[in-house]
Design a protein that fits this description.
CATH class of the largest domain: Mainly Alpha
Radius of gyration: 25 Å
Number of helices: 15
Strand content: under 5%
Largest sheet: none
Order of helices and strands: HHHHHHHHHHHHHHH
Length: 270
């Protein structure tokens, strides 16, 4: 994103959250597209049948035929006709009925931009999306398809946003700790660290996730309650030391070193 000005960051953040929630709440349609076409007698081999006007004509004709006021036994079919028309007349069938992971990633990235530019302005507000953000991190980190090509974009975007919210306010660090967000980050860390090798590239998803998690831990370590929780997660310490070896990935090794430095303020974490 270019460095465009954001006139009203707080209302914009609320809009991003609302759009994100609306996307997550989408559910599969009650019937398949194929069944909807069958109910409205749509034949895709006929060019005329592809037009919205044809859907409307079929809907009005069949709805009149099966309307319960005229056909007491037609209520079930009437409801199916309504459902079929609503499905087929959607602006975009695929995007309208199921959550779009790309749109969700954009919503998360937009929030990261807001927090990266207006951290001070947002510092007095507690981030409102932790419940869903932590759930997203946890589910994505446990996804069997995480390392398949194209996987992990959502996880990386979610963890990056988590770090920006932590930087903004101590209120957020405490909320993340209370909502078991540190545990979700450790789950992601434990899965991605072993995937980083000497042949890894800086843009590889596991590398990016590890960088963002290191940044999160470093920020969280500035708060005593978070440090106490980190003490209970011994797997992260060996993982952090392992990441120091990758001279071919300077951003990653630097993030790991900075994380270790942040934790070293606590005698027990040393």
């Amino acid at each position: 994103f270019p460095d465009w000005p954001i006139r009203d960051p707080i209302p914009f953040l609320r809009s991003c959250l609302a759009t994100w929630y609306n996307e997550l709440e989408k559910k599969p349609a009650s019937m398949s597209v194929e069944l909807a076409r069958e109910i409205l007698s749509v034949d895709l081999t006929n060019e005329e049948h592809r037009k919205p006007a044809f859907f409307r004509r079929q809907y009005y004709k069949l709805a009149a035929k099966y309307h319960p006021d005229k056909n007491p036994e037609g209520r079930e079919m009437f409801e199916r006709i309504n459902a079929a028309y609503e499905l087929l007349s959607s602006e975009s069938v695929n995007n309208s009925i199921m959550p779009d992971s790309h749109r969700i990633v954009l919503c998360l990235q937009a929030q990261s931009i807001i927090y990266s530019r207006y951290s001070k302005e947002l510092s007095e507000y507690k981030y409102a999306g932790y419940s869903q953000l932590i759930k997203t991190i946890d589910l994505e980190a446990k996804d069997e398809a995480l390392f398949i090509k194209g996987g992990g974009d959502l996880l990386s975007a979610a963890i990056e946003l988590a770090n920006y919210t932590l930087i903004s306010s101590a209120l957020n660090a405490e909320q993340l700790r209370r909502d078991n967000g540190l545990e979700a980050l450790v789950t992601a860390f434990d899965r991605c660290v072993p995937m980083v090798t000497m042949s890894s590239n800086p843009d590889d998803m596991p590398v990016q996730v590890c960088i963002h998690v290191c940044d999160c831990f470093a920020t969280a370590a500035t708060f005593e309650a978070c440090r106490q929780r980190l003490m209970e997660m011994p797997s992260i310490f060996g993982a952090l030391c392992r990441l120091l070896q990758f001279s071919n990935l300077p951003r990653l090794s630097t993030a790991s070193a900075q994380c270790i430095r942040a934790m070293a303020v606590d005698t027990l974490l040393q």
